[in-house]
Amino acid sequence: MSPLKKIGTNLAYKTTTELIGRVLAFIFYMMIARWLGEVAFGTFSLVYSVLAVLVFLVDPGLNLLLIRQGSRDSNFIDSALGGMLGLKVTLSFLMTTIALVYAVLGGFETTVIWIFFLLGIQMAGFAITEYASAIFQSQEKMQYETMIMGASKIAVTGLASLCLALGAGLLFAVAVMTLVQSVAAICSLSFTFRQGYTSILPSFAVPQWANLLRQAFPLAAITFFVIAFYRIDIAIAPFLGMGLAEIGWYSSGVKLLDVALAVPTLGMAAAFPTLSRLAAQDRSRFLRLSNLLLLAIALSGLTCALLVFFFAKNIVLTIFGAGFVPAVSSTSLLGIASFFVFTRHGLLTLMILDGKSDSAVKIVAIGLAVNITCNLMLIPTNGAIGAAWSKVITDLSVCIAGSWVWFSIVRRGVKLDE
Question: 3-class DSSP state for residue 414?
Answer without folding.
Answer: coil
